[in-house]
Amino acid sequence: MEIDDLPYEKLKLLLKEDHQAISLNLRVAALFLVVYENLKDLITDKARSFFTDDWQIVDGKLEGKPSQKYLDLLRGKIAFRACGDFHIEIGAISSEDDELIDRFSAYRGEVAHELYSILFDDSKAALDVDLLFQVHRLARNIDRWWILNVEIATDGDWVDKEIDEEQVMSGRQLFLDQLVRVALKDVLDLLEEEGA
User: Fold this and answer.
1) Mean pLDDT score of the chain, rounded to an integer?
2) How many structural domains compose the chain?
3) Is 1 inside a domain boundary?
4) Interhelix angle for 129-146 vs 171-183, to 10°?
5) Are 129 and 35 in contact (CB under 8 A)?
6) Rounded to an integer, what distance in angstroms lies between the CA atom of residue 170 and that of residue 53?
7) pLDDT (tens digit, 9 = 90+) per residue, 61-97?
8) Is the dihedral of CA 151, 157, 159, 161 positive or negative?
9) Structure confidence at residue 185 (pLDDT)
């Protein structure tokens, strides 16, 4: 049996050493996991830090001890969900953003558990790169919201200073931007060419 006689297109491409599609899907799948963990950490860590009012040294590291308000916030909920609700309450995200997070979380679970099928089953669509970009932008916006509305707003050194809000970003988000650029350089270059 020749490669061209196989009934599976994705497998044929792999066997013909046309690795462009599979390479892209592997890179995008990895980014789904990284972007999800960043979003989850960002949402939970910012809420936890907001409610932290006591600090202690544990195993040589400074560790925050959240207040009772944080524990009340979590009561009966998963931390990511409870902290997401808190972000809606304070205006850091909208209900549409929350729906995007839910959709992304479910899709990320599918990517993590169904990657083999996504890579080799012809009936499975390629990964949703647009969804990945949407959530990466959302994480950047959440990060910016906290810097502008909490960190800068409570730091007297920034009073009456002009700030280019679009340029505000934490080191963590800068690193993730660079990671996305490196992992998807070929896709981003193609999109830029098509847009020009």
Assistant:
1) 88
2) 1
3) no
4) 160
5) no
6) 22
7) 988 899 999 999 999 999 999 999 999 999 999 999 9
8) negative
9) 87
